Amino acid sequence: MRRYGKHTDEDDIRQRPNRKGTRPRTHIRPAHEDAAEGMVLTVDRGRLTCLVEDRTVLAMKARELGRKAAVVGDRVALVGDLSGKKDSLARIVRIEDRTSVLRRTADDDDPFERVVVANADQLAIVTALADPEPRPRLIDRCLVAAFDAGLTPLLVMTKSDLAPPDKLLELYGHLAIPYVVTSREELETGDAARVVQEHLDGKITAFVGHSGVGKTTLVNALVPEGLRRTTGRVNAVTGRGRHTTTSALALPLTGEEGWVIDTPGVRSFGLAHIDPSRVILAFPDLEPGTVNCPRACSHDEPDCALDEWVAEGHADPARLYSLRRLLSTRERTEGD
Question: Which residue in 18, 68, 111, 164 is a FRET match for 74, CA 20 to 30 A apart?
Protein backbone atom coordinates (compact mmCIF):
# COMPACT_ATOMS: atom_id res chain seq x y z
CA MET A 1 0.00 0.00 0.00
CA ARG A 2 1.34 3.41 -0.90
CA ARG A 3 2.11 5.72 2.05
CA TYR A 4 2.68 9.46 2.01
CA GLY A 5 5.04 11.43 4.16
CA LYS A 6 4.57 14.82 5.77
CA HIS A 7 5.53 16.74 2.64
CA THR A 8 3.46 15.15 -0.07
CA ASP A 9 2.95 16.81 -3.39
CA GLU A 10 -0.68 17.42 -4.39
CA ASP A 11 0.02 15.81 -7.71
CA ASP A 12 0.77 12.56 -5.95
CA ILE A 13 -2.73 12.33 -4.44
CA ARG A 14 -5.36 10.60 -6.49
CA GLN A 15 -8.74 12.39 -6.32
CA ARG A 16 -12.03 10.52 -6.70
CA PRO A 17 -14.25 12.15 -9.35
CA ASN A 18 -17.48 13.79 -8.15
CA ARG A 19 -20.40 11.86 -9.65
CA LYS A 20 -22.72 14.85 -9.13
CA GLY A 21 -20.56 17.18 -11.14
CA THR A 22 -18.25 20.01 -10.16
CA ARG A 23 -20.78 22.83 -9.90
CA PRO A 24 -21.05 24.00 -6.26
CA ARG A 25 -24.42 23.82 -4.53
CA THR A 26 -26.47 26.96 -4.07
CA HIS A 27 -29.64 27.91 -2.22
CA ILE A 28 -30.50 30.52 -4.83
CA ARG A 29 -33.40 29.26 -6.91
CA PRO A 30 -34.04 30.41 -10.48
CA ALA A 31 -36.70 33.12 -10.79
CA HIS A 32 -38.29 31.55 -13.87
CA GLU A 33 -39.22 34.98 -15.16
CA ASP A 34 -39.98 33.49 -18.57
CA ALA A 35 -42.44 30.94 -17.15
CA ALA A 36 -45.87 30.76 -18.77
CA GLU A 37 -49.04 31.50 -16.82
CA GLY A 38 -51.65 28.80 -16.43
CA MET A 39 -54.68 27.68 -14.45
CA VAL A 40 -55.01 24.26 -12.81
CA LEU A 41 -58.07 22.46 -14.20
CA THR A 42 -57.81 19.13 -12.39
CA VAL A 43 -55.39 17.05 -10.31
CA ASP A 44 -54.97 13.30 -10.73
CA ARG A 45 -52.35 11.28 -8.83
CA GLY A 46 -49.63 13.91 -8.93
CA ARG A 47 -50.34 15.02 -12.49
CA LEU A 48 -52.00 18.38 -13.01
CA THR A 49 -53.88 19.40 -16.13
CA CYS A 50 -53.44 23.12 -16.71
CA LEU A 51 -54.84 25.60 -19.19
CA VAL A 52 -52.03 27.57 -20.85
CA GLU A 53 -53.40 30.12 -23.31
CA ASP A 54 -55.78 28.03 -25.45
CA ARG A 55 -54.37 24.52 -24.85
CA THR A 56 -54.27 22.03 -22.02
CA VAL A 57 -50.87 21.01 -20.69
CA LEU A 58 -50.02 18.09 -18.43
CA ALA A 59 -47.63 19.09 -15.66
CA MET A 60 -46.07 17.98 -12.40
CA LYS A 61 -45.04 20.00 -9.38
CA ALA A 62 -41.41 21.09 -9.34
CA ARG A 63 -39.27 19.72 -6.54
CA GLU A 64 -38.38 23.20 -5.36
CA LEU A 65 -41.99 23.80 -4.25
CA GLY A 66 -41.55 21.27 -1.47
CA ARG A 67 -44.81 20.24 0.19
CA LYS A 68 -46.76 23.15 -1.20
CA ALA A 69 -49.52 21.62 -3.33
CA ALA A 70 -51.41 23.14 -6.24
CA VAL A 71 -55.18 22.61 -6.38
CA VAL A 72 -57.94 23.20 -8.89
CA GLY A 73 -58.33 26.91 -9.55
CA ASP A 74 -54.75 27.81 -8.73
CA ARG A 75 -52.90 30.25 -10.95
CA VAL A 76 -49.47 28.79 -11.62
CA ALA A 77 -46.26 29.41 -13.56
CA LEU A 78 -45.00 26.61 -15.81
CA VAL A 79 -41.77 25.81 -17.65
CA GLY A 80 -40.67 22.97 -19.88
CA ASP A 81 -42.68 21.36 -22.67
CA LEU A 82 -45.81 23.51 -23.01
CA SER A 83 -46.89 22.11 -26.37
CA GLY A 84 -49.69 20.03 -24.89
CA LYS A 85 -48.76 17.11 -27.13
CA LYS A 86 -49.14 13.50 -26.07
CA ASP A 87 -46.49 12.30 -23.59
CA SER A 88 -45.28 15.87 -23.00
CA LEU A 89 -44.79 17.04 -19.41
CA ALA A 90 -44.25 20.53 -18.01
CA ARG A 91 -43.22 21.65 -14.53
CA ILE A 92 -45.10 23.96 -12.18
CA VAL A 93 -42.43 26.17 -10.63
CA ARG A 94 -44.58 28.72 -8.86
CA ILE A 95 -48.05 28.95 -7.32
CA GLU A 96 -49.37 32.49 -7.36
CA ASP A 97 -51.03 34.13 -4.36
CA ARG A 98 -54.62 32.96 -3.89
CA THR A 99 -57.58 35.32 -3.66
CA SER A 100 -59.70 32.75 -1.79
CA VAL A 101 -59.36 29.21 -0.45
CA LEU A 102 -62.29 26.87 0.23
CA ARG A 103 -61.32 24.27 2.81
CA ARG A 104 -62.99 21.38 4.57
CA THR A 105 -62.10 18.43 6.77
CA ALA A 106 -63.46 14.91 6.44
CA ASP A 107 -65.32 15.39 9.74
CA ASP A 108 -65.09 17.50 12.88
CA ASP A 109 -62.61 15.10 14.50
CA ASP A 110 -60.19 15.23 11.58
CA PRO A 111 -57.29 17.66 12.22
CA PHE A 112 -56.18 17.64 8.57
CA GLU A 113 -57.84 20.26 6.41
CA ARG A 114 -58.18 19.78 2.68
CA VAL A 115 -58.22 22.59 0.16
CA VAL A 116 -61.21 22.00 -2.13
CA VAL A 117 -60.64 24.82 -4.64
CA ALA A 118 -58.66 28.05 -4.88
CA ASN A 119 -59.50 31.47 -6.31
CA ALA A 120 -63.25 30.86 -6.56
CA ASP A 121 -65.64 33.81 -6.37
CA GLN A 122 -68.74 32.02 -5.15
CA LEU A 123 -69.98 28.69 -3.83
CA ALA A 124 -73.06 27.09 -5.38
CA ILE A 125 -74.64 24.81 -2.77
CA VAL A 126 -76.78 22.30 -4.65
CA THR A 127 -79.52 20.44 -2.76
CA ALA A 128 -82.41 18.31 -3.96
CA LEU A 129 -85.87 18.99 -2.58
CA ALA A 130 -86.53 15.23 -2.64
CA ASP A 131 -84.80 12.00 -3.69
CA PRO A 132 -82.60 12.42 -1.69
CA GLU A 133 -84.17 14.50 1.06
CA PRO A 134 -82.63 17.93 1.71
CA ARG A 135 -80.08 18.20 4.51
CA PRO A 136 -80.25 21.67 6.09
CA ARG A 137 -77.35 20.91 8.44
CA LEU A 138 -75.07 20.20 5.48
CA ILE A 139 -76.24 23.42 3.85
CA ASP A 140 -75.42 25.33 7.04
CA ARG A 141 -71.95 23.82 7.11
CA CYS A 142 -71.33 24.80 3.50
CA LEU A 143 -72.48 28.33 4.31
CA VAL A 144 -70.04 28.50 7.22
CA ALA A 145 -67.20 27.38 4.93
CA ALA A 146 -68.25 29.88 2.24
CA PHE A 147 -68.34 32.84 4.62
CA ASP A 148 -65.04 31.80 6.19
CA ALA A 149 -63.42 31.60 2.73
CA GLY A 150 -64.87 34.92 1.59
CA LEU A 151 -67.06 33.35 -1.09
CA THR A 152 -70.55 34.48 -2.04
CA PRO A 153 -73.01 31.60 -1.47
CA LEU A 154 -75.63 30.61 -4.04
CA LEU A 155 -78.35 28.12 -3.07
CA VAL A 156 -79.49 25.90 -5.95
CA MET A 157 -82.55 23.73 -5.25
CA THR A 158 -83.23 20.91 -7.72
CA LYS A 159 -86.10 18.44 -8.34
CA SER A 160 -88.87 20.92 -7.50
CA ASP A 161 -91.25 18.63 -9.42
CA LEU A 162 -90.94 16.11 -6.57
CA ALA A 163 -91.40 18.52 -3.64
CA PRO A 164 -92.03 22.25 -3.14
CA PRO A 165 -89.21 24.51 -1.94
CA ASP A 166 -91.32 26.24 0.72
CA LYS A 167 -89.66 24.71 3.80
CA LEU A 168 -86.13 25.52 2.68
CA LEU A 169 -87.12 28.99 1.57
CA GLU A 170 -88.52 29.60 5.05
CA LEU A 171 -85.08 28.83 6.47
CA TYR A 172 -82.89 30.54 3.90
CA GLY A 173 -85.07 32.77 1.75
CA HIS A 174 -84.88 35.73 4.14
CA LEU A 175 -81.08 35.64 4.53
CA ALA A 176 -80.42 37.65 1.37
CA ILE A 177 -78.72 34.57 -0.12
CA PRO A 178 -79.44 34.30 -3.85
CA TYR A 179 -81.25 31.11 -4.76
CA VAL A 180 -82.51 29.23 -7.81
CA VAL A 181 -85.25 26.59 -7.96
CA THR A 182 -85.16 24.06 -10.80
CA SER A 183 -86.99 20.89 -11.81
CA ARG A 184 -85.81 17.72 -13.56
CA GLU A 185 -87.65 18.74 -16.71
CA GLU A 186 -85.89 22.12 -16.73
CA LEU A 187 -82.56 20.36 -16.42
CA GLU A 188 -83.33 18.22 -19.46
CA THR A 189 -84.56 21.13 -21.60
CA GLY A 190 -81.76 23.48 -20.58
CA ASP A 191 -84.08 26.05 -18.98
CA ALA A 192 -82.45 25.46 -15.58
CA ALA A 193 -79.01 26.20 -17.01
CA ARG A 194 -80.16 29.52 -18.42
CA VAL A 195 -81.52 30.63 -15.05
CA VAL A 196 -78.47 29.48 -13.10
CA GLN A 197 -76.05 30.93 -15.63
CA GLU A 198 -77.27 34.44 -14.85
CA HIS A 199 -75.53 34.08 -11.48
CA LEU A 200 -72.31 32.61 -12.93
CA ASP A 201 -71.27 34.92 -15.76
CA GLY A 202 -67.83 36.40 -15.25
CA LYS A 203 -67.20 34.41 -12.06
CA ILE A 204 -65.47 31.23 -10.93
CA THR A 205 -68.10 29.15 -9.14
CA ALA A 206 -67.45 25.98 -7.16
CA PHE A 207 -70.36 23.52 -7.01
CA VAL A 208 -70.78 21.38 -3.89
CA GLY A 209 -73.58 19.09 -2.82
CA HIS A 210 -74.64 15.72 -1.52
CA SER A 211 -74.36 12.80 -3.93
CA GLY A 212 -77.47 12.37 -6.10
CA VAL A 213 -78.78 15.95 -5.90
CA GLY A 214 -78.20 16.59 -9.63
CA LYS A 215 -75.06 18.70 -9.24
CA THR A 216 -73.12 17.13 -12.10
CA THR A 217 -76.24 17.03 -14.29
CA LEU A 218 -76.60 20.78 -13.81
CA VAL A 219 -72.91 21.37 -14.51
CA ASN A 220 -73.19 19.35 -17.73
CA ALA A 221 -75.97 21.65 -18.90
CA LEU A 222 -73.72 24.66 -18.34
CA VAL A 223 -70.58 23.55 -20.18
CA PRO A 224 -69.76 22.56 -23.78
CA GLU A 225 -71.02 19.14 -24.80
CA GLY A 226 -67.56 17.65 -25.29
CA LEU A 227 -66.61 18.36 -21.69
CA ARG A 228 -69.60 16.79 -19.94
CA ARG A 229 -69.09 14.28 -17.14
CA THR A 230 -70.71 10.95 -16.29
CA THR A 231 -73.77 11.09 -14.02
CA GLY A 232 -75.43 8.49 -11.79
CA ARG A 233 -78.77 7.73 -10.19
CA VAL A 234 -80.00 7.67 -6.60
CA ASN A 235 -80.16 4.23 -4.99
CA ALA A 236 -83.84 3.37 -4.49
CA VAL A 237 -83.08 1.40 -1.29
CA THR A 238 -80.68 3.67 0.57
CA GLY A 239 -81.81 6.99 -0.90
CA ARG A 240 -78.18 7.91 -1.50
CA GLY A 241 -76.48 8.94 -4.69
CA ARG A 242 -73.48 7.20 -6.21
CA HIS A 243 -70.15 9.02 -6.44
CA THR A 244 -69.66 9.49 -10.18
CA THR A 245 -67.43 12.57 -9.78
CA THR A 246 -64.19 11.48 -8.13
CA SER A 247 -62.08 14.62 -8.53
CA ALA A 248 -62.65 18.34 -8.85
CA LEU A 249 -62.64 19.69 -12.40
CA ALA A 250 -62.79 23.27 -13.71
CA LEU A 251 -64.88 23.71 -16.85
CA PRO A 252 -65.60 26.82 -18.95
CA LEU A 253 -69.15 28.11 -19.28
CA THR A 254 -70.73 27.66 -22.70
CA GLY A 255 -70.44 30.89 -24.66
CA GLU A 256 -69.81 33.03 -21.58
CA GLU A 257 -66.93 34.36 -19.54
CA GLY A 258 -66.73 32.29 -16.39
CA TRP A 259 -65.85 28.91 -14.95
CA VAL A 260 -67.64 26.22 -12.99
CA ILE A 261 -65.76 23.77 -10.76
CA ASP A 262 -67.53 20.47 -10.27
CA THR A 263 -66.48 18.76 -7.02
CA PRO A 264 -67.08 15.20 -5.78
CA GLY A 265 -70.32 14.63 -3.88
CA VAL A 266 -69.93 15.01 -0.12
CA ARG A 267 -71.67 13.17 2.70
CA SER A 268 -70.06 15.33 5.38
CA PHE A 269 -68.44 18.75 5.51
CA GLY A 270 -66.11 18.98 8.48
CA LEU A 271 -65.34 22.38 10.02
CA ALA A 272 -62.44 21.44 12.29
CA HIS A 273 -60.28 24.11 10.63
CA ILE A 274 -62.69 26.99 11.38
CA ASP A 275 -62.57 29.04 14.57
CA PRO A 276 -65.90 28.52 16.41
CA SER A 277 -66.23 32.28 16.92
CA ARG A 278 -66.57 32.66 13.15
CA VAL A 279 -69.45 30.21 12.82
CA ILE A 280 -71.96 32.95 13.71
CA LEU A 281 -70.96 34.74 10.48
CA ALA A 282 -72.90 32.13 8.54
CA PHE A 283 -76.08 33.11 10.43
CA PRO A 284 -76.59 36.80 9.61
CA ASP A 285 -80.18 36.58 10.87
CA LEU A 286 -78.89 35.64 14.34
CA GLU A 287 -75.79 37.84 14.54
CA PRO A 288 -77.68 41.05 15.58
CA GLY A 289 -79.05 39.16 18.59
CA THR A 290 -75.55 38.63 20.00
CA VAL A 291 -75.13 42.32 20.87
CA ASN A 292 -76.46 41.78 24.40
CA CYS A 293 -74.65 38.48 24.95
CA PRO A 294 -72.24 38.21 27.92
CA ARG A 295 -68.58 38.70 27.18
CA ALA A 296 -67.00 35.63 25.52
CA CYS A 297 -70.44 34.06 25.16
CA SER A 298 -70.35 30.69 23.44
CA HIS A 299 -73.98 31.20 22.23
CA ASP A 300 -74.81 27.84 23.78
CA GLU A 301 -75.23 28.70 27.47
CA PRO A 302 -78.11 29.80 29.77
CA ASP A 303 -77.30 33.56 29.68
CA CYS A 304 -77.06 33.77 25.89
CA ALA A 305 -79.12 36.68 24.55
CA LEU A 306 -80.03 34.70 21.45
CA ASP A 307 -82.75 32.81 23.35
CA GLU A 308 -84.69 36.02 24.02
CA TRP A 309 -83.92 37.34 20.53
CA VAL A 310 -85.45 34.26 18.91
CA ALA A 311 -88.37 34.15 21.38
CA GLU A 312 -89.31 37.69 20.32
CA GLY A 313 -89.71 36.46 16.76
CA HIS A 314 -86.60 37.99 15.19
CA ALA A 315 -85.38 34.66 13.81
CA ASP A 316 -86.49 31.10 13.24
CA PRO A 317 -85.85 28.75 16.23
CA ALA A 318 -84.61 26.12 13.76
CA ARG A 319 -81.76 28.45 12.82
CA LEU A 320 -80.67 28.80 16.45
CA TYR A 321 -80.82 25.03 16.83
CA SER A 322 -78.63 24.61 13.75
CA LEU A 323 -76.10 27.14 15.06
CA ARG A 324 -75.85 25.44 18.43
CA ARG A 325 -75.56 22.03 16.89
CA LEU A 326 -72.53 23.20 14.91
CA LEU A 327 -71.02 24.93 17.93
CA SER A 328 -71.47 21.92 20.19
CA THR A 329 -69.79 19.72 17.60
CA ARG A 330 -66.82 22.09 17.42
CA GLU A 331 -66.59 22.24 21.24
CA ARG A 332 -66.46 18.46 21.50
CA THR A 333 -63.64 18.40 18.97
CA GLU A 334 -61.61 20.92 20.94
CA GLY A 335 -62.11 18.97 24.16
CA ASP A 336 -60.81 15.67 22.74
Answer: 111
